[in-house]
C-alpha cells in the first residue's frame, strides 16, 4: 500500500516521492550508491556495473542495494509500489533481453539512464525474471513509476498478459488494479471542484451548503488504492504555491499527508495496523532527498552532491524515526 507523486514547483523544479504504507519497518535507511558500483545480477549471474550515483530509501543485503525509491545524479527517479494480484514474472532468462529480477529494476534504471526518452527503447527488451534474492527473501509484487527532470513520467507494469509502459500525465501512482483502470476511474470524479458551491433552488426548496469547506465534496476519503489515486490526483492538480521559500516541498508533503495512513485506520487480514512508515520527496534538479517518518514529523534533508559520488562503497545514512520536539520555553 503506497502512493507516489510528481510535482513541478513554481520555480520549475521537479519533485518526486512517495508514502511507504506498511504495517512494519523493513530496517530501511537512506543509501547513497556511488558511481561505477558493481553488483551481481541474480537472474543471469553476471556482474553489472552502474554508470551513475544514486540516493534513496532501501536496505543493503550482502552489499547489494535494494531500493524502495531513489534518484540518480542525472535527475532520473523511480519508485516501486506494491501491485498484488497483477504482478507476474517470467520463469526463464531470454537471450537478447534485459533480464532483471524485480528487486533490481530501480537499480538497473537509475544506474544506466538519464531520461525517459533514453530508457524507453530498453524497456521494450525488459524481461523481469522470477529469481528470488535468496532463500529467505520472497519475491516482491511491484509496478514502477519513473520520471525525469524534464517532467516526463511513465508507469511500468508486468502482468501475466504483457509488459505495459504507460505515459503518466496525472503524475500519481498507487497500487492495484492496473494504471489504465485508475485513469478510467478518474472519469467518475470529473465534476468535483475545489470551489465552495453556491446556494441553489431545487424543486421549491432553497438549498445551501452545509458550512464552509464544501469544495471537493464527493472526493473519496478512504484508504483503498483507487480512492488514494483519485484524491492524490485531485490535490496535485489543484495545488497552489505560496511565495514562501521551499513552498513546493511544503505542498508536496501536504498532498501526501492527505492520503497517509493513521495507525488503526487500516488493519491487515493478520490484524496488524498499516501506517505510513515514511514520506519521501526528491528534488530532481538539486539531487536532494527529503523525508519524514510516522514518529518524526521533522523533514530530514540529505544532499547527494555534498558527498563523494566516486567513493568505493555505499554510504548509509541513519533513519531518523524518533520524535524531535522544539521547545520554546
Commentary on this structure:
The structure is a single chain. With 329 residues, the chain is of the alpha+beta class. The chain has one domain: Penicillin V Acylase, Chain A, CATH 3.60.60.10. It contains five helices and 20 strands. The protein has helices spanning 105-112, 116-123, 179-185, 225-237, 247-257; strands at residues 2-8, 14-22, 29-33, 38-41, 46-49, 54-61, 64-72, 77-82, 98-100, 126-128, 142-147, 153-158, 163-167, 172-173, 200-202, 205-207, 275-283, 288-293, 300-303, 315-317. The strands form five sheets. An eight-stranded antiparallel beta sheet has the order 13-12-11-8-7-6-3-20, covered by helices on one side. Strands 14-1-2-17-18-19 form a six-stranded antiparallel beta sheet, covered by helices on one side. The protein has a two-stranded antiparallel sheet with strand order 4-5. A hairpin with a 4-residue loop joins strand 4 and strand 5 (46-49).
